[in-house]
């Protein structure tokens, strides 16, 4: 390779002479020193991929003898190909992200459409009930008003008769003939027959009863719709049921496991367990052995006869030495408290826990009523998650019942 620069006139033979046409012409370089190996004063025609620097042919036999070297042109082609591949990968990623956005929109629209339709049906039923309620109130009021107007008309008629008689009597008194007055208004024109209004009154109804009736009718109308929707949610959740087995290595020393690690109860008697980073030492918790890092899963726990319990999930690397107030999503815990002394859970005997890892959702079902009693939404799971159970404090004679992982019945 010649690194001299020529004008267009001197280059003319390279375009006409066959032997010179085989020469490779490149653009002129302004700084030729950069193209020469400072060590051997030879052209830089190779590239060391180990040290990422250009070399001359002698460098490939000396300092870079055992290195991965290639011709500069090959390296340029490789870098060009690598760059093109990175561009293609990123374009592919753009398409992938856009497809995710499109899929999200499709799912969002479908869920929104279904939800809006459901709520519109509910609103329609509520509005119909409200119209019927108002009509019943107004109808009853019109009946009262009609009765009152009838009474007032009768009263007004008697008042008119009495006022006419009063006028006639006043005119008769002007004659000063009191005997004729008495005889005329006693025998000839006696007083008209009048109603006894002493016990007559308008009964004002209590409209409250009509609201109670309307509310009961609305509940009867709405309950099947809501029941079907809620039961469908639990039915779908049960499709992702998993078998959970408790991990003794994570159990607090006061927790006792049995039934092949499906049952846990708290006791004042301490188990002789060796402490480890995975074990809970301040909270009466135990984790399931199973880890989940994608998709959905569902499990059920019997909580019968317990005034206190805690259920949920936690991240696999969450700190196990925390205090009760620290069991928060920020610390990797999605846990809800319950018990038969808490209003929302007072009659609950079995709780279903459903987790959608990808959607960031944790739901707590009362399996008897098929209702979602509590939930976490927009959860951000950083690592895999594990089921968490806690039978609550064992220093109360009222909280001795165990928590039991039970098979899921579809």
TrEMBL record:
<dbReference type="InterPro" id="IPR013320">
    <property type="entry name" value="ConA-like_dom_sf"/>
</dbReference>
<keyword id="KW-0175">Coiled coil</keyword>
<dbReference type="InterPro" id="IPR058030">
    <property type="entry name" value="TRIM8/14/16/25/29/45/65_CC"/>
</dbReference>
<dbReference type="InterPro" id="IPR000315">
    <property type="entry name" value="Znf_B-box"/>
</dbReference>
<protein>
    <submittedName>
        <fullName>Uncharacterized protein</fullName>
    </submittedName>
</protein>
<dbReference type="InterPro" id="IPR001870">
    <property type="entry name" value="B30.2/SPRY"/>
</dbReference>
<dbReference type="GO" id="GO:0005737">
    <property type="term" value="C:cytoplasm"/>
</dbReference>
<keyword id="KW-0479">Metal-binding</keyword>
<dbReference type="InterPro" id="IPR006574">
    <property type="entry name" value="PRY"/>
</dbReference>
<dbReference type="Pfam" id="PF13765">
    <property type="entry name" value="PRY"/>
</dbReference>
<keyword id="KW-0863">Zinc-finger</keyword>
<dbReference type="Pfam" id="PF00622">
    <property type="entry name" value="SPRY"/>
</dbReference>
<dbReference type="Pfam" id="PF00643">
    <property type="entry name" value="zf-B_box"/>
</dbReference>
<feature type="domain" description="B box-type">
    <location>
        <begin position="32"/>
        <end position="72"/>
    </location>
</feature>
<dbReference type="InterPro" id="IPR051051">
    <property type="entry name" value="E3_ubiq-ligase_TRIM/RNF"/>
</dbReference>
<keyword id="KW-0862">Zinc</keyword>
<dbReference type="Pfam" id="PF25600">
    <property type="entry name" value="TRIM_CC"/>
</dbReference>
<feature type="domain" description="B30.2/SPRY">
    <location>
        <begin position="224"/>
        <end position="410"/>
    </location>
</feature>
<dbReference type="InterPro" id="IPR003879">
    <property type="entry name" value="Butyrophylin_SPRY"/>
</dbReference>
<dbReference type="InterPro" id="IPR003877">
    <property type="entry name" value="SPRY_dom"/>
</dbReference>
<dbReference type="GO" id="GO:0008270">
    <property type="term" value="F:zinc ion binding"/>
</dbReference>
<feature type="coiled-coil region">
    <location>
        <begin position="134"/>
        <end position="172"/>
    </location>
</feature>
<dbReference type="InterPro" id="IPR043136">
    <property type="entry name" value="B30.2/SPRY_sf"/>
</dbReference>
